[in-house]
Specification:
20% of the residues lie in helices and 28% in strands. By secondary structure, the protein is α+β, with helices and mostly antiparallel strands.
Length: 538
């Protein structure tokens, strides 16, 4: 947590839930409302000037703050203007009792004395939708939610007072769309309420999201083939690690499917293939079969053999990552490299080879809003599907969001999926992680995780996720014999079994000898799959 080192005397607006203030951020500075110019009009409170330097200086600018109060509910609407362009606006609810955060996908999150920042959209943990609640000592909740109807960054920040950490401020920060810079920002309304029961607020918020993003029901989806509706077990069959270590070749993958089809009907099995294309991630952007894993003949045997049994096959593709040293990268990727709102490229790398830590720099993030990249990737997926007849394509890191000035990453994903389906309408599309606006784009997604601990999207509101989507285990799920995460960079993970719920399809990670060394644990996962089929499949 980082913060200002001084108190800024912002004008306060009284509400039944506590005083509210407003901050306005540009790329250059942060501003408050000038109390000397503040007046009340029919549309709310209006400030014709802003302050900066902690209130010591004034600046041209304007803000309108409209507050609609009821006994236990407050709606805050802000319009901010500044010639430098608005970057984000913070609405701050002051002097609240510090309490644990609830209403997120994990268990309750405690707030340390240094505070906590919780961001949206996050496909892996915390907030899948811009709503959370903070527990109060009397057992009630303070609920805050954004009524935005498009994907824009939000941050919920709880800052305990330095001199009284049992009291805190709740900051609600909404970013503008970096692809549409403007000197004026009409902030999506914030709805604040005090309640003893979170359920009605979740129901109301889910209704808002279903309308805003036109989320289809699971039963009505046209992008879910019949076989996917009959899936009760996902097998994560790990191929080749980044280092070149082979866990399963194509024949080994087929052998696992055959053996498990003795325990559960193969029509319930979907085989997910991370590392099927050779060294995991190393040649993202160039997808094809690998000779060490069995080449064209071996891959064809795998798919044809699985289909003869009744199982389905889903290779893994990278939705937004490409290797810089591939031929043509400068044309189909480099102009579309992902940018932060500042216009600079994000940096960072996974520790692929236990060097702890060396950035190989061969991998680059590409915004799927860049049309040449979308077409380059979609054409490979479609060509391989038509050549080998696999049943689904998994899009790695599909839930990635970045407020990129070059274009919306979420709309880019939607366009990528649409481009694939134009030429392969029968191909199911799956992806990694989930947040609310993705619900109508991709039907099947992996669970999230926080430091390899599974995080499930059907929490806290099953109606939102399970109403439109299904999930299966993240690739970092450990195998039950070794705890190995196979090709995934986590290395080992003690979590190898998922709960049996309608929105969570049982998943088994297999690395080489998993079935031989852990038959009883494997049987437990298969038992979960049989239970899932009996409870939730027609």
């Amino acid at each position: 947590m980082q913060d200002l080192s001084f108190r800024w005397p912002h004008p306060r607006f009284d509400t039944p839930l506590g005083p509210v203030t407003v901050r306005i951020h540009t790329g250059e500075n942060v501003y408050g409302l000038d109390p000397a110019s503040l007046r009340e009009e029919a549309d709310g409170f209006v400030a014709d000037r802003l302050t900066w330097a902690g209130g010591e200086q004034t600046s041209p600018g304007r803000a309108t703050v409209k507050i609609i109060n009821t006994d236990s509910r407050v709606r805050v609407e802000v319009v901010a203007e500044h010639k430098d362009g608005i970057r984000c606006v913070a609405v701050v609810l002051h002097d609240q009792p510090t309490g644990a955060v609830t209403g997120v996908r994990e268990e309750d999150l405690e707030v340390p004395r240094t505070g906590r920042v919780i961001g949206y959209p996050n496909g892996w943990f915390d907030l899948a939708t811009p709503m959370l609640a903070m527990k109060r000592p009397d057992g009630t909740l303070t609920v805050a939610r954004s009524l935005d109807n498009q994907v824009r960054s939000k941050r919920f920040v709880i800052i305990p007072h330095f001199d009284d950490p049992d009291t805190c401020d709740l900051e609600l920060i909404a970013d503008t769309d970096a692809a549409r810079p403007s000197a004026r920002f009409e902030v999506p309304a914030w709805d604040l309420q005090r309640t003893a029961d979170l359920a009605p607020a979740l129901t109301e918020h889910t209704a808002h999201l279903r309308a805003a993003y036109e989320l289809p029901t699971w039963e009505e989806r046209t992008d879910v083939p019949a076989w996917l509706r009959d899936t009760a077990l996902v097998l994560s069959l790990n191929g080749m690690h980044f280092t070149g270590k082979v866990f399963l070749d194509y024949d080994g993958m087929l052998d696992v499917i055959r053996r498990l089809s003795d325990q559960i009907e193969a029509r319930h099995i979907l085989a997910y293939l991370p590392g099927w294309e050779g060294r995991y991630y190393r040649w993202y952007g160039r997808f094809d079969v690998d000779e060490r894993l069995g080449g064209e003949a071996g891959f064809r045997r795998l798919i044809e053999g699985a289909h003869q049994l009744g199982a389905r096959i889903m290779p893994m593709f990278g939705a937004n990552i490409a290797s810089r040293d591939l031929p043509g990268f400068e044309t189909w990727a480099a102009p579309g490299l992902l940018l932060n709102p500042s216009g600079h490229a994000p940096v960072g790398s996974v520790d692929w080879d236990a060097s702890r830590h060396f950035d190989h720099s061969w991998g680059a993030l590409v915004n799927p809003a860049y049309e040449p990249w979308r077409r380059h990737l979609a054409e490979q997926i479609v060509r391989l599907h038509h050549e080998y007849d696999f049943d689904a394509a998994f899009l790695d890191i599909s839930a990635m969001y970045n407020n990129d000035p070059r274009g919306s990453t979420t709309q880019g994903l939607r366009d990528l999926v649409g481009l694939i389906r134009e030429s392969a309408p029968e191909l199911a599309i799956a992806g990694e992680a989930w947040f609310d606006a993705l619900g109508g784009i991709i039907p099947l997604v992996q669970t999230g995780h926080r430091d390899t601990v599974p995080v499930h999207h059907d929490r806290p509101d099953p109606a939102l996720f399970t109403g439109s989507n299904r999930s299966f285990g993240h690739v970092c799920l450990g195998d039950p014999a070794h705890g190995s995460t196979g090709v995934h960079e986590a290395g080992y993970n003690a979590h190898w079994r998922l709960p049996v719920r309608e929105g969570v399809i049982p998943t088994l990670t297999v690395v080489g000898d998993t079935l031989d060394l852990a038959p009883s644990q494997v049987s437990l996962v298969v038992q979960d799959a049989r239970e899932y089929a009996a409870k939730f499949l027609s």
